[in-house]
Amino acid sequence: MTLSKIWVFAEAVDGKVTPTTLELLTKARELGDTVEAVYAGGDADAIAGTLGEYGAAKVLATGDLGDALPGVPVAGALADAAGAQAPNAILFPTTYVGRDVAGRLSVKLDRTVITNNVDVAVEGSSLVTTEPVFGGSTNVKTTFSGEGPFLVLVRPKSFAPEASGGGAAAVETIAVPDAGKSGGAKIVNRHVEERSGPSLDEAAVVVAGGRGLGEAEKYEMIERLAKDLKGAPGASRAIVDAGWVPYSYQVGQTGKVVKPDVYIAAGISGATQHMVGMKGSKNIIAINKDAEAPIFGISDLGIVGDVHKVLPALLEALEKR
Amino acid sequence: MNVVVCVKQIPDPADPGALDPTTKTLKRDGKLILDESDSYGVEMALQLVTAAGGGEVTLVSMAPNGEVGGLRTALAMGAAQAILVSDEALAGSDALGTAKVLAKAIERVEAADLVLTATESSDGYTGTVPEQIAALLDLPSVTFAKQIEIDAGTVKVQRQTDNGYDDVECPLPAVVSVTAGVVEPRYPSFKGIMAAKSKPVDTLTVADLGLDAASIGWAGAGQEIVAIEEAPAREAGEIIEDDGTGFEKIVAYLENLKVI
Q: At A183, phi and psi to the nearest 5?
């Protein structure tokens, strides 16, 4: 069973299509006879090749949005285009722009949007989505009860991307209607926090620190261990909120979803919020002084001990080698 | 400056959550508390009102059984009053239904300059409600604010991005969702707790809001839960009490995986 037309909300960073976009296009080919990408930006020509290679027959692009925060203008453009072209479903990545656009669009179309999904399947003329709850111990399956377009927000790394070998997607420009006063938010400046080493999304080893480190200065041990293992340092939401490390380090529901070969959690108890971002790691090593910490429930190797003793000894042993 | 803050009252996250086997939705029959995520918006609102030299903070919430426990916490922090929408017809509302109710409640607050929300609740965490409210109110919005200042009818926000942050400016009135960490929420003082007992909480029904009951709750939800399944559990491996040699276990484990 397939639906006739699926749209995928495509994103690109520095002119390169994001991995999550490729994941969604791959899944969309399974769900629909026709797959099309929708794109907010002026450089659709540059990414049409990649989008086509992963199955998009065409890409509907808004053109350059100038300094507007994308949510409002893009939802306006998609609402009009969806009215004219009738996609059965639109898959969005769980990203800042994806969530903004899906939320706005759900009001414009008066359709529900189902969020935090890790799987999507066709059932009859509707879709069934899968959302993990309670830290991933339980899956809730939900179907759309009304008419399409079905709006679905999908978590990153839910599917493995596979190219279909298609030719470049045809670029079609869609109009951006005037948003009136609701379109008042403007980006006046962008700040990029530089990181060195492999990116958190792609590193084979991730070393993450949490509240158990006690103080911001101790995070240096996490960075050192990550460097020793040629990995990327990460963090729990608690220490990001406390301002110890930038947000770009955060692993979890509201941060990055990571699936490295090895994940080392130091001083992290394992809140639901964190677990959903890392429980797909191949090997999990946890160090925490609380034997009851939930993180031990999903660890392959758990050390019940003081991070202030275990980490320095570990660093010394690795750096002597 | 008048600020509206959307607050959710949720089951205590310290208690294990449970789904109702018949309705397949999160059980909310126990005592509800203020969602910690919302305490940041409340604190931010109080600080903005203080900085503006006048105005007040109004809370808006939707909860079953006339529940006010979480509202009292936010009132004790310093909010002036609350609007609570409580109605059996609300059970089963999806994110869009929730936004419709909250938007109608917000419309009742006179001369609101700013609506603050968390980025997502701690129990449902859809993360779409703030933007849906803004769309229903036809207001501009900025999500994921990690810093907010008001400057002559404009809200200036540092908005989180994947690799840093953007400076975003937006004319008031507007909806802004704030991340945890934007400010440090205050603890209610004894005086605040006592004062909160007598602060006004306007409890409304769906009919009071002029909403059609068919557009919200189970009736209006565009989704239906069809199954709840146990996810394949990840087996816990070896858990060792550190006796000073715990680090060696980690080294051996990493060697075994050929990481080192």
A: -90, 25
